[in-house]
Amino acid sequence: MTIANYHAAPQPAPFLVSIGNLHATQHHVVTPAGTWPIADVNVTTSDQTSTTTHTPTWAIVMVVIFIWFFLLSLLFLLARETRVQGFVAVTIFAGGFSYVENVPVWNAAQRADVLNRAAFLQGLIGQERYRLGR
Fold first, then answer.
1. Residue 4 in domain
2. Is residue 105 part of a domain?
């Protein structure tokens, strides 16, 4: 067999965005529940995270250690720490079927990343619908 007669199999389209087990190419959305044309898909997100603020442990320890030396050590109690926990639910609706991917979130940057990926996927859907004239 020579190089001229060799025909390589077509390569699959690369994933442009992945959100947990949801993956999207230029023309399809791939989930564990199935693969759908991207123009037939609707995507919604639901932010199920909670944000709380606490006094960090190190601040309480510093107050206990330095309270005998300075009354100003009570200012350590003004230190605050923000904690984010929960998940972002990304739902795919396509042709009477739906798939929900719950993506765990542990900080504000992860939450923003998941929501930005969902927005990018919605942009891909809009581009494909425009290309097809829908």
1. no
2. yes
Structure tokens at 28: 């399809």
Cα 120 to chain center, whole Å?
Answer: 11
pLDDT tens-place values along the chain, 134 residues long: 556 666 666 777 888 999 999 999 999 999 998 899 999 999 999 999 998 888 888 888 888 887 777 777 777 778 888 888 999 999 999 888 999 999 999 999 999 999 999 999 999 999 999 998 87
Q: pTM surpassing 0.85?
A: no
Contact 87, 47 (CB under 8 A): no
Helix (H) or strand (E) holding 84: strand 81-94
Domain that holds residue 55: 13-132
Q: 2 in a domain, yes or no?
A: no
Q: Encoding tokens for residue 77?
A: 């109690």
